[in-house]
Protein: Helix-turn-helix transcriptional regulator
Amino acid sequence: MTQLRISDAARYLGVSDDTIRRWIADGRLTQRKDASNRSVVDGAELAALAQDSAGALDDPTHVRSSARNRFTGLVTEVVVDGVMAQVSLQCGPFRVVSLMSAEACRQLELEPGSLATAGVKATMVWIDTVDEG
Structure:
């Protein structure tokens, strides 16, 4: 079972240590003591809370799609250089960057502050973890 110190749990969720302590007091998380008698929370419990409380924006396109890797957010930057454009979106805590034709960018009327949804297709996804050995 993965156990996380309160400060780490707070950092991973982008909240304060006091917020984690309030969630413990409210019963949203369970506090335990580790082998060093430090306060910790269960990693799986924290992950479930993070997933349940994830603030996602509604997809403004309202299209039906088989794609599951869709991120809705605000356009934060548009850089058009010749025939290509780079569009950055802030989707919750994640930044998604798309390279597209300048023509497509103009047709979609993308500009900072626009609401948009990015669809991501990857042929490979890798995951890194901390070596605790």
Remarks:
- The radius of gyration is 20 Å.
- Strands lie at 3-5, 31-33, 39-42, 70-81, 84-91, 94-101, 115-119.
- The chain is about 25% helix and 30% strand.
